[in-house]
Amino acid sequence: MRRDRGGTYGDQRGACRLPATVSLMPERAVRVVISGRVQGVGFRAFIAREVARRQVVGWVRNRRNSTVEAVFIGEQDEVQDLVALCHDGPGPADVSEVSVTEYVGPALTRFTELPTE
Description:
It contains 2 helices and 7 strands.
């Protein structure tokens, strides 16, 4: 049997246990800008609730130009789910456009609602 700091990687039965810190899904980091009637309708709270159901970090904020901006960092599937939800938003929202770009910025460790910028 061969051991590593993270645990057993193989034994006579062919078992494989990965370290707890290894993610099997690729990580994705995106910046999303949502346009339309997206302020004053609970969009930030909607995003924060949806993020709380997933293992995603980042932030969300209103912009002075009437858009909502968010950063999502996490497993690719979870980030894609959040981006898809941005196209609809909460009930009172009327989304006209969702722009998605790769996020390039500092590393984040939690999800935060930021003040308007």
